[in-house]
Amino acid sequence: MSSTAPVNDYVHIDKQSPAVYQAQIGVAKAVRHATTEAGMDRRFVELINVRVSQINRCAYCLDVHVAAALAAGETQQRLAVLPAWQETTLFSEREVAALTLAESITTLPDAHTQETDYAFARRFLSEQEISTVSWIAVTMNAFNRISIVSRHPVRPKQ
Predict the structure, then answer these.
(1) How far is 121 from 111, CA to CA, in rounded Å?
(2) Which of 29, 52, 134, 157 is the most buried (most CB within 10 A)?
(3) Per residue in 117-146, pLDDT tens?
(4) Number of CB atoms found within 10 A of residue 25's CB
(5) What is the biggest distance separating any 2 CA atoms in the chain, rounded to whole angstroms?
(6) Is-contact 91 78, C-beta < 8 A?
(7) CA-CA distance, 127 to 131, in Å (whole number)?
(8) How many other CB atoms sit within 10 Å of the CB of residue 124?
């Protein structure tokens, strides 16, 4: 199939295999519970979801999670500079550690870089927070791939 095929020619794998997709939803619910247990608010979680979706270039998930981040109290300014978060002082040490870990999990750099990123994250995040941030990133990566493979459309807001 050519890369210029219309969007509607793609199989929405979530609709085609609903039991598998529901299992993925179950993972997302478990991760949401873990975030609550770790004391992570929705704004913090959505910041990670947005950054992972930016890296993966998932338009559908960006549409969903930017709106969720704003609804959770995230600012337009921080979302605007999120692709260049390392160049700002707008993020706390905890957020920087979480973004570093989430980016490393998403991009899977060489082993040395992964070790450096993980060591940095350990300086500011508890073991529970490291585990939870990791699960947030892993789960968001999975949803990004579901939407990208299915070519879920972004529709204009009414």
Answers:
(1) 15
(2) 52
(3) 999 999 999 999 999 999 999 999 999 999
(4) 13
(5) 47
(6) yes
(7) 6
(8) 17
| Continuous segment of H or E residues that includes residue 90 | none
Query: In sequence order, what are the residues at sequence separation of 6 or more whose Cβ sits closer than 8 angstroms to the Cβ of residue 145?
Result: 56
Answer yes or no: is pLDDT of 7 > 60: no
Its pTM stands at 0.93
Between the two ends of the chain, the Cα-to-Cα distance in Å is 33
Q: Which residues contact 13 (CB under 8 A, 6 or more apart)?
A: 20, 21, 146, 149, 150
Q: Is 92 helix (H, G, I), strand (E, B) or coil?
A: coil
User: DSSP letters of 11-26?
Assistant: --HHHHSHHHHHHHHH
In 3D space, the residue among 66, 62, 85, 63 whose CA is nearest the CA of residue 74 turns out to be 66
Radius of gyration of the chain (CA): 16
pLDDT tier at 102 (50, 70, 90 boundaries)?
A: very high
Q: pLDDT tens digits for 71-91? A: 999 999 999 999 999 999 999
The pLDDT, as a whole number, for residue 2 is 46
